[in-house]
Design goal:
This protein is mainly alpha-helical. The chain contains five helices and two strands. The two termini are about 30 Å apart.
């Protein structure tokens, strides 16, 4: 998928973010810092990671500045409400930066933290893939906690099978 227009991309990306946000409603607040294994991301870490990497890496690099990403620990936000609020705040700041890009800048190159030059529209596409990857982790974590999660597009796999017979 090539991103040809910043406004249509921002509309699409907002829908991606909203699907992630809907999942947050299923996280038991007492489990926000749960992880399956010591030393691995907690649920809160994943949410803070999505927030900080979007704002401090992706949004900074499309401004042709170096990444400012510095982790995702509880020093950024602690507890369920604060963590969700932080995610929303960082996304709001990022969206303002992305909206100022303008379509004309999508074919310019920015530099990743690894020093690789990449076309901005491809970097934005990678950001979407990153969000979806970590949303999948949240689904898995919630499954491990035996939390019933919503289907992503309205039907479960079992419902699709039933409706296909």
């Amino acid at each position: 998928m090539e991103i040809k227009d910043i406004d249509s991309f921002l509309e699409y990306y907002s829908k991606i973010k909203n699907r992630t946000r809907r999942l947050f409603e299923y996280i038991p607040s007492e489990d926000i810092e749960w992880t399956y294994q010591a030393g691995k991301f907690t649920i809160g870490d994943i949410i803070r990671h999505l927030a900080t990497i979007e704002r401090y890496m992706y949004a900074e690099t499309v401004k042709f500045k170096p990444s400012l990403y510095n982790g995702c620990g509880i020093e950024y936000a602690k507890g369920y409400e604060e963590t969700i609020s932080f995610y929303n705040q960082m996304n709001s700041e990022s969206m303002k930066i992305f909206s100022r890009l303008g379509t004309e800048n999508l074919h310019k190159k920015c530099k990743t933290p690894g020093g690789i030059e990449i076309t901005i529209w491809k970097w934005l596409r990678a950001m979407v893939e990153h969000e979806v990857h970590h949303r999948g982790q949240l689904y898995l974590y919630l499954g491990m906690l035996k939390v019933k999660t919503p289907p992503i597009f309205g039907l479960t796999s079992e419902e699709v099978i039933k409706n296909s017979e």
